[in-house]
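fyi for ur records
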Amino acid sequence: MTWHIPEPMALAYVSGEVQGARAASIEAHVMTCATCRSLVGREVPTDRLDAIWADVEELVDSPRRSLAERLLTRVGLPESDARLVASAPSLHLSWLTAIAGVLAFAAWASQNGDRGLALFLIVAPIVPVVAVAGAYGRWIDPTYEVSVSSSYPTLRLLLLRSTAVVIAAGLLAVVASLLVPDARVAAAWILPCLALVAVTLVLSRWLPLLWSAGFVATCYVLPLLSGLYQDADVTGLVLSNAVQLTALVVAAAAITFMFTDPQMRAALRRNQ
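which gave:
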């Protein structure tokens, strides 16, 4: 179109009477012609535009809070913290559904003898570690660049998100444990899990979270899977007092470090 749109045609276009190729031509012309764009704009009912923009502004200024965000604010986390924590990928429904599926499979496998019980003891402790790995990171978190460029302390965000996802994944693991036929096995994963998560968070002080979680999970899983492949008594090993006591000591040491290290302690303070 090499001329301006006649006013009757602009009115017909706005009212929806112009269709097909002619409507496409008008739209293409309006994109490059300020005069015709102004003409068409004058013909559009302002009350409708005002209502649309009001809805957009309300959505942007007051976005609907997710269930995770509402729960976090109820336990005392400030709204600014809760919004950032709730955006963790591993708190999204897709992640939690996948975690629940893995735990359900492990619980089902535990019904099938010693090897099934051993598989549950391998899977259950590392599920929260995997969830922590999905809490923050360049390759996982779509809001990573925004978080890094903001003035919000990165370490605080990492620790808060990790705590939230560990609680969520841990609760799913507890539910799965109720399906395990052996009561000792149903509880034996808790201390190893606590140790693995705590060590992961300590290592994240120096390493990317994904790397620290991968290293910790590998160190736990590979020896046990190797033992399972060689028909070793993996269940008895994890249930042994030596392993349980070691897990308790490691967890206590890692948690103590987190609360005594100046940088991590500062990140945990509410006013940071």
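The CA atoms of residues 155 and 267 lie 6 Å apart. thats all i got for now
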